[in-house]
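Bug report (template v2)

What were you trying to do?
Predict the complex of my protein with NAP.

What happened?
Run completed; filing so the output is reviewed.

Input:
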Amino acid sequence: MKLLSGKTAVITGATRGIGKGIAEKFAENGANIVFTYLSSEEKAKALEDHLKSYGVEAFAIRSDASDFEQAQELIKVALDKLNGRIDVLVNNAGITKDNLLMRMSEEDYDRVMEVNLKSIFNMTKAVQRTMLKQRQGSIVNISSVVGVKGNAGQANYAASKAGAIGFSKSIALELGSRNIRCNVIAPGFIETEMTEKLNADVVSQWRESIPLKRGGTPEDVANVTLFLASDLSTYVTGQVVNVCGGMLT
Ligand code: NAP
């Protein structure tokens, strides 16, 4: 059964890692997709072709999610490409600029907040009118277990991801009466290019400390995103789902 048949989705930051996994899962389930990237043009084009091989429409658009005007323009273009409907928005684009507070620059704090948190405001503002008109929509924001728990060396990242949770719960309360849902996924340790930067010892310690004894895959996160995007979750809003192999238990 294709869970997103006839639906349209916008996904930010889908050239690799979790965003790519979500785009593939959505295409496999019949959604027409607009996805964004910032710098990886070749990867974006390759993914666009790959998604089309599932028999859906797919469009890669370069757009900086942290820029308010670019986000508004993106949604205008997306509406044009997706026949005036946006059923699902996934705010996935995110970066890390880790450091102990002592060494964290103001610039690195601000950039992480802009890409990880302001982007969610930018994109949600941009789709709100369309979803209100449709009286339907599902917004899925990708936070992190670090936003729930905190993490030494990631004060900027944790603040942005905790902010995403507060923002999402507020939107769920504000827009629930119009049948617009807003939920959060808090992935744990998912093995992607973002985590490849980490020290090998740290990675093996993490794997050992996870009850399921492995890092997660983009597909593990994509499966839960599919559930939250689809009509299987029509009575679920304002929730944070930890996809972390039991790490937060
Ligand atoms: P990733 O492999 O580094 O991929 C990040 C994606 O975001 C890329 O497609 C990148 O595009 C895009 N991007 C970056 N800045 C952007 C911007 N300003 N505007 C638009 N797109 C932008 O990351 P990931 O590991 O898949 O993580 C995806 C999300 O999950 C992030 O929000 C991250 O915080 C969250 N998360 C990840 C983990 C984990 O363990 N991996 C755990 C918890 C939460 P370009 O390639 O064009 O730069």
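What did the reviewer find?
The chain has one domain: 8-243. The pocket of NAP is lined by residues 12-19, 36-40, 64-66, 92-95, 115, 142, 144, 187, 189-190, 192-195 (CB under 6 Å).
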